[in-house]
Every structure is written in C-alpha cells, then in structure tokens.
Design a protein that fits this description.
Layout: E1 3-10, H1 21-35, E2 38-44, H2 52-66, E3 72-76, E4 80-82, H3 88-91, E5 97-102, H4 106-117, E6 127-135, H5 137-143, H6 145-156, H7 164-174, E7 179-181, E8 188-190, E9 202-205
Parallel strand pairs: 1-2, 1-3, 5-7, 8-9
Antiparallel strand pairs: 3-6, 4-9, 5-6
Helix pairs in contact: 4-7
Length: 214
C-alpha cells in the first residue's frame, strides 16, 4: 500500500478553468511526485447527468473507496495549486481527519448549527471546506459518510438543500470524529479580498485567475 493524491473534474465546470485544466492536472502530478505518492484524476462526463452538488459528494465517496486501498489519501480540488516542496503526508498526522475549518460561508455554518442544535448538540462556529482534505481507512470508518448521508437526507432534506461540507461538518461534530485543522496555510482561499499569499503552501483559487500564480 502507498499514498495517493486525487482530484475530480466535470466537463461543465466553470469555463474559466478550461484553458488551464491540463496545466492544473500537471501541477497536481508534480506535487504527487514531490510527495512520492500516486496520482489519479477523475473525469466525470456530463452525460452522466451529475450536477455540481452531487460532484462534491462524489469526491468524499471516492476518498472513502481509495482509503480501502491506500494508506493515506489526499484530495485536492482542481483549482487548488500546491506552491510547496513540503510533503503533506509526512508533515501531517493522519491519525485524524485533516481539514480546514473556515468561518465562511455563514449560511453553511448556520444550517449545520440548526441541524445539530435541533438534536441538542452544541455547534462550533465554523464549517469544513472540502477543497483540501486528508483521510485514512480508520477515519473513514469513523465518519461512515455514505451511510450517514442517507440518514441525514431522510431527516433534513425537506428543510435544507444537500451540501457535502455541511453534512461532513455535522457528522464530524455529532459523532466526535477526531480532526486536525490544517489551517489556511494548506487551503488558502484566494478571493477578491485576499488575492495572493506567498507564505501559504496550497492556494485555493476561488477567483479562477490562474494566470496570476501559474
């Protein structure tokens, strides 16, 4: 067994990505080589009628499946650009879910809070951003995402739209899954307010202005 980095793409993704798709894939391949890890790109065809919300659930499903075969799994959104030579797998403690918990968007935090508080569980004022996460088979077995997603849908789908970040955050808090916040250095969200950071390891290009960093 070994480690793997993977990403996922769907052909109706934001057209601003299209010109950079191959460059972004090569960037992830290069970082996988730095880490001594395998790399896999999943290209989901539009004819499968997968919408964007479902695509975001799929990356967690795929991570769960890969964790059955690999020691450590690192997921990167395709618009996440590694800018480091530091090996993620060696730097972080994979005995916990590795994720970045953010203070935005507030609507996701509020929905997660309402779900938990309706069950008498106090909620943290943040939400997991699934643009970057690291996981193992042991942690997947604690999360049981696909099984618990079905239960959440039965209980809450009439009130709230399904969202992978809300669901994962809800599960982690409700079932006390051990996690380590990797912090913004490993998932720096580049937007109009924070256009760049040379001090961060992974730049998450929500602006899709890849020419500014590639």
């Amino acid at each position: 067994m070994t480690n793997i980095i993977f990403d996922i793409w769907i052909d109706f993704s934001d057209k601003r990505w299209l010109a950079y798709k191959d460059i972004l894939i090569e960037n992830h391949k290069k970082y996988a080589k730095v880490c001594g890890a395998e790399y896999k790109h999943y290209n989901i065809k539009h004819e499968n009628k997968i919408d964007f919300a479902t695509l975001n659930f799929m990356k967690i499903y795929i991570a769960e499946n890969l964790a059955q075969k690999y020691d450590k799994v690192l997921y990167l959104d395709l618009d996440v650009i590694p800018k480091t030579e530091i090996n993620f797998f060696e730097y972080h403690d994979f005995s916990k879910l590795l994720c970045h918990r953010t203070l935005a968007p507030l609507w996701k935090i509020n929905i997660k809070r309402l779900m938990l508080e309706s069950e008498g569980i106090s909620s943290e004022h943040n939400v997991i951003n699934t643009g970057v996460f690291g996981i193992t088979k042991k942690i997947c077995n604690l999360i049981q995402f696909q099984k618990r997603e079905k239960k959440i849908n039965l209980e809450y789908s009439d009130e709230y739209a399904a969202n992978n970040e809300i669901y994962l955050s809800y599960i982690v808090e409700k079932y006390k899954v051990p996690y380590m916040d990797i912090g913004p250095a490993w998932n720096f969200l580049v937007d109009k307010n924070y256009p760049k950071s040379d001090a961060c390891h992974f730049l998450h290009m929500s602006t899709k202005e890849f020419n500014s960093v590639l």
